[in-house]
């Protein structure tokens, strides 16, 4: 996916502010943070959205959540509370069509979101 922004980040064409990296997953700071901690956790392999997931991706999705928790621990927000969000589709606010988990914390977060 040469025209995918997050694939370019994975490839090293764009250098992210990396928080954590594993064999399959990369976590880096959002360029337009909505909270003191706002990190994006992505699979290194291109998957467009939740709608494109297959059963074979189940373990990888689990890795995204374990990485999100590791990010929260690293950022010191695991105990105070944090939110993970995965937008699916334009109507839900997805703007980058390479699946990603937002990890938000470091301030009070209201619920439900707007
Ligand atoms: P979405 O709206 O698709 O759920 O989330 C995409 C996120 O990617 C947004 O929060 C946006 O600020 C972030 N983003 C867009 N372009 C870049 C970029 O070049 N670098 C980083 N680190 N984040 C980006
Ligand atoms: Zn991609």
TrEMBL record:
Q: Which residues form the HIT domain?
A: 5-114
Classification via InterPro entries: Histidine_triad_CS, Histidine_triad_HIT, HIT-like, HIT-like_sf
Q: Identify the catalytic residues.
A: 100
Motif Histidine triad motif, residue numbers: 98-102
For this chain, one GO molecular function annotation is: catalytic activity
By its UniProt entry, which PROSITE patterns does this protein fall under? HIT_1, HIT_2
- Classification via SUPFAM superfamilies: HIT-like
* Cross-referenced PANTHER family: HISTIDINE TRIAD HIT PROTEIN (PTHR23089)
Question: Would you tell me the protein name for this molecule?
Answer: Histidine triad nucleotide-binding protein
Species name for this entry?
A: Alkalilimnicola ehrlichii
């Amino acid at each position: 996916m040469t025209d995918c922004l997050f694939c370019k980040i994975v490839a090293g064409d764009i250098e992210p502010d990396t928080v954590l990296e594993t064999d399959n997953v990369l976590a880096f700071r959002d360029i337009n943070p909505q909270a003191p901690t706002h990190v994006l956790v992505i699979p290194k392999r291109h998957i467009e959205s939740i709608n494109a997931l297959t059963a074979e991706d189940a373990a990888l999705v689990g890795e995204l959540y374990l990485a999100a928790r590791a990010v929260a621990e690293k950022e010191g927000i695991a105990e105070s509370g944090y939110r993970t969000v995965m937008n699916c589709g334009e109507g839900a606010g997805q703007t980058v069509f390479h699946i990603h988990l937002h990890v938000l914390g470091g301030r009070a977060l209201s619920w439900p979101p707007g």
